[in-house]
Design goal:
single chain
Length: 63
């Protein structure tokens, strides 16, 4: 009976550890994915922006 209690304690500890690390892993993964998408989006916008404004310099006249 005592051994069973120990096993229960161990599994409880393991599950709390999992609960602690799981959101972190998810958040980290989501962050990396978002950052990658953000960079891709920025590069796309920049490319479009420069193609457009290089073609029409009179519309966009930076100081």
């Amino acid at each position: 009976i005592e051994r069973d209690q120990n096993v229960n304690e161990l599994s409880k500890e393991r599950s709390t550890k999992l609960v602690k690390t799981w959101p972190y892993v998810v958040a980290r993964y989501a962050h990396v994915t978002l950052a990658r998408d953000h960079v891709r989006l920025c590069n796309t916008i920049k490319t479009v922006h420069f193609q457009y404004y290089r073609a029409c310099p009179f519309i966009y006249d930076p100081p």
